[in-house]
Amino acid sequence: MPHDHRLKDPYTELRLFRNRMLVAIAGVIVLLGVLVARFYNLQIVNYEDYRTQSDENRIQVRPVAPTRGLIYDRNGILLADNRASYNLSIVRERVRDLDATLELIGHLIHLEDSDVAKFRKRMKRRRPFEPVPLRFRLSEDEIAHISVNQFRMPGVSVEAELVRYYPLGELFAHSVGYVGRISERDLNNFTQEDVRRYRGTRSIGKVGLERSYEQRLLGEVGYENVEINARGRVLRVLDREDPKPGVGLTLHLDARLQQVASAALGDRRGAVVAIDVNTGGVLAFVSKPSFDPNLFVTGISFVDYRTLSDSLDVPLFNRVVQGQYPPGSTLKPVMGLGALEAGIISRETKIKDPGFYKLPNDPRIYRDHIRWGHGDKVDLVQAMAQSCDVFFWDMAHRWDIDDMHTIASHFGLGAKTGIDLPTERAGLFPSRHWKRNARGVPWFPGDSLNAVLGQGFVLATPLQLAVMTATIANRGTHYRPQMVKTINGTVQPPERLHNLEAHPNHWDLVFEGMEAVVNRSDGTGKRAGEGLDFRVAGKSGTAQVVGIAQGAQYDSEALLERHRDHALFVAFAPVDKPRIAVAILVENGEAGGKVAAPVAQMLFAEWMSRPYPPVETARDTGLTGRAGNG
Q1: Residue 104 sits in which domain range?
Q2: Residue tagged active-site, from 329, 387, 448, 540
Q3: Which of 14, 252, 349, 525 is at 20 to 30 A from 67, Cα to Cα?
Q4: What total number of domains does the chain contain?
């Protein structure tokens, strides 16, 4: 059988090997070129981009919230403080399974459904890698539970921050106000500058001075570059730009006088305002019932808010600047001065008071609170001391309503006072023009009889009544009421809005009448001066809440408590050199002289026990006015 014998061809094998080797080398060179090109792209072309991405994983720029400015009373008592609070926060980008993490946290500490719901809402408006708070104000035990189990929860951390705290609680809730969490509504109203300033800050002033002076109290945000590990924990701070703290405020308010006013008002609904006659500084500002502002700082619970909002006593309502009440007979000193200036009455004017008054050609009978009258020769002083309505009705019938409106406006009635607080209401003192536009009917003589007694269409806030009384005490110098005395140590000078020129004898007569209210044995406000060793001038008032039938007598027992008359009292002291003016309103208190006047007495006793401070120089706006045509 034949065999196929082939000889080995080394040249062919060498050529084949060489070709294969060249192909292999070419392949290696191509791959190496691709690798080098990729390295070049990574290390040269896109170096800065990848370095930045790497640094973002390792280094974060975090905003540093500024310390909110503190608020003090005039004597340095702290009214709004900042206290450390420990919050549980989550960085979403570092959490693998958010639902599982939330479930685990719920086993470690107590979580309300509302906490989780609010957390998910905050997640929608966060920035990348921003810690989002889940729970505020952790206890020491809760912090310990989280810390021990933190290795199981990457992206979860306990963070310390300063939160607002109000040491005196409800005592200053309506004046200092409170801060609360930034809401969707707040965010929608933010400008780009606001977005920058509020980075790192979760709170904003909601009401009171916290809202009015928000831009001053807030401060300027700072920044820091921090190095973090894979779990998001901060390893070290690489660079830092410190924030600028907010400015501090010192108020005219006096904490001790505020406590006295609140205690004097007791559990009754109402308001108390005290003003420094010589500066316009607000010394006491009480609206009752009140509430604890600390409930709102980190977000009030649904149950707590419903308790406050559903209460018939409306504790969230600021009666001092938002409550509009008929001022009643507290307007008589102003109306008396205006009539004197207009020549409607004089010191010698006397009327006969049978206990009622009738307008010509009008069948209605207007009855005085004393049905048998005040006598045959009632002058202005007696009419104010005994609150004789008939004297003022007769005066109003002979006086033009527009002149009454003019004198009222000079004392701040019917317009906002301009106090440095938000949500102030303007009240109302009517005129012919107002009634025609608002009601579509002309002015009637009976409307004047109501207006001169602070009834009918007339409405005023307790703050307006206090400003009115301070203007009387100043013999026409009208100051803008101010809450803040100094900003970061810089004194805010008093602001004189205008000066009402009136004859000195007319001022003397009004002072005499107001002093008779307190010092005469038959004065309606004599309880305001009991036990005091200085002279007090005042005027009581009773304002109807519901109307009664023509000729019917007021029966307190037949009315529901909330339908009874409001009790009012305004006063200033001492008469010879006034220092303080007050206005007191007791809702449904009925008798101003019996219920509201003792509150004024307690305020005067407290304030006049203090040494007399120097008077700051007033800043005049250049506005002047004159009432009447006398």
Answers
A1: 85-159
A2: 329
A3: 252
A4: 2
